[in-house]
Q: What sequence folds into this?
């Protein structure tokens, strides 16, 4: 069976991904950045931030469409960062994925985090697939939310 690409899918593949990497370890962030640049089928623009202040500085001139956060920043800092990103106008609808060191630590319970990836044995293909799937999932969520609001409004008008 052959998969047929729609014009929208082709256009989205040509548009660069704007990825914001957040973490406190430059070595780990460099490794993730190398993995992102190994993806040859997609152009990626990346920015790296190390704390909330540098995140806000990056958002002044950079509009990400995907956010990747290393869990090494600490549980409290991770929670603060996710809360800030999920309420900021530029980032509230952007999918967030957390890079984890192990499966033994509990995951952060937040509706804003769409996926978790283990850093161990992370490949460029795994990273790219996670980005693609998270972007599709977020677009679907936003579409369903807008459709729900529209239908709810229509139903309320009909019932009056």
A:
């Amino acid at each position: 069976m052959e998969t047929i690409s729609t014009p929208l899918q082709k256009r989205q593949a040509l548009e660069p991904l704007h990825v914001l990497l957040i973490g406190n370890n430059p070595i780990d962030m460099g490794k993730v950045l190398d993995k992102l640049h190994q993806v040859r089928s997609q152009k990626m623009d990346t920015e790296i931030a190390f704390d909330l202040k540098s995140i806000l500085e990056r958002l002044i001139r950079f509009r990400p469409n995907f956010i990747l956060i290393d869990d090494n920043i600490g549980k409290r800092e991770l929670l603060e960062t996710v809360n800030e990103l999920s309420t900021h106008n530029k980032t509230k609808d952007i999918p967030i994925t957390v890079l984890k060191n192990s499966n033994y630590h509990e995951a952060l319970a937040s509706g804003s985090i769409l996926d978790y990836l283990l850093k161990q044995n992370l490949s460029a293909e795994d990273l790219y697939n996670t980005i693609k799937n998270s972007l599709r999932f977020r677009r679907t969520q936003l579409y369903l939310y807008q459709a729900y609001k529209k239908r709810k409004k229509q139903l309320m008008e009909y019932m009056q």
Summary: The chain has one domain: 13-159. The helical segments are 7-14, 26-37, 52-61, 75-87, 124-159.
